[in-house]
Amino acid sequence: MIAETPKYYLTKEGSRGLEREYVELLKMRKLKSKGDTPSVFHSEELSAEFVAFREDLDLLESRIEELEHILKNVELIKSPSQTERDKIYLGAQIKVEVDGQTDEFVLVGTLEANPVIGKISNESPVGRALLNHRVGDEITISSPIKVTYKIKSIKY
């Protein structure tokens, strides 16, 4: 059985950010290949410097490869059709009530998730549970404690 290539769900903003990072890393790679290699003599100091340089270069190459893979497999998050906007899909701005308090967040793919700034992943327990639900629905999640989310509004 052939493994299916994963899709990376990103907003336009998230995709642009990864594209910018990719371009910057390619510039760094070009600079490193233009002779920024430390000289290797037999001194311990220069050998340590060369090892650190190689490790940096390996990390750079690894991240470039990772970004190339992601950018080849991006699926941009698009707003659903007008008739489907009453349901929660990727890209939804959701307002919920939890224990009498209101919380707001945007449902995004895993690469953009950052709960500190109000972006939760569609693969997180909360994100997964909220998908396809509507305003007024109550969803209870038991992970590790039981919490009930009441959907107050959905915007795209």
Describe the protein.
There is one protein chain. The chain is of the alpha/beta class and 156 residues long. The chain has 2 domains: 8-76, Orthogonal Bundle (Helix Hairpins); 82-155, Transcription elongation factor, GreA/GreB, C-terminal domain (Chitinase A, domain 3). The chain has helices at residues 12-33, 44-72, 125-130, and strands at 8-10, 74-76, 93-98, 101-108, 119-121, 138-142, 146-155. The strands form 2 sheets. The chain has a 5-stranded mixed beta sheet with strand order 5-4-3-7-6. Strands 1-2 form a two-stranded parallel ribbon. A hairpin with a 3-residue loop joins strand 6 (138-142) and strand 7. Helix 1 (12-33) packs antiparallel against helix 2 (44-72).
Tags for this model:
156 residues, alpha/beta, Helix Hairpins, Chitinase A, domain 3, 2 domains, five-stranded mixed sheet, two-stranded parallel sheet, 3 helices, 7 strands
Morphology = elongated
Distance between the termini: 38 Å
Count of DSSP helices?
A: 3
Low-confidence stretches: none
Secondary structure: elements and pairs:
Blueprint: E1 8-10, H1 12-33, H2 44-72, E2 74-76, E3 93-98, E4 101-108, E5 119-121, H3 125-130, E6 138-142, E7 146-155
Parallel strand pairs: 1-2, 4-5
Antiparallel strand pairs: 3-4, 3-7, 6-7
Helix pairs in contact: 1-2
